[in-house]
Amino acid sequence: MNKVSFTPISIKEAIENINATRNGWFLPAVQRPYVWGSRYESEKYICRLFDSILRGYPIGTLIIWNSAKEIPYRNFIDHYADGVIAPFADKNLWERDDKWLVYDGQQRLQTLFSCLKYTLNNRVLTYNLFFDSYNRTTQNQMALLLLRRIQSLIPDT
Prior knowledge:
Number of helices: 3
Number of domains: 1
Order of helices and strands: HEHEEEHEE
Largest sheet: 4 strands, mixed
Structural class: alpha+beta
Number of strands: 6
Strand content: 15-25%
Helix content: 10-25%
Radius of gyration: 17 Å
Shape: globular
């Protein structure tokens, strides 16, 4: 019988695990595509995730399964663009025993991965250092923005 456990990790550790060559986190074929980056007012939802993190709020748990069974999977997308779906990994890798499949948490992880390490719809996450959280007029105001990436200032990774 499989053992279920709970292990707290940092956001940095989670980002490092995504698509890693050893003990990497991947998306099983049964996962639906990433939708946070393409839904109506997606920027607002994405910034709220980061706002919650900055405020120290919990952002939920992940369900990740380690299996050596032959299970088709995809990588997370680095520079996410609306409508892009990552292709399946090579069939020869489906039986590897060091893969961890994300069954719950894809939307949050893909958002963190793209925004913190790459780009999301050719935008980069920015923090407004002049934002006055004490004098904001509504709870919806945040210091975070997704701004259009300027090619000459932010190189491809």
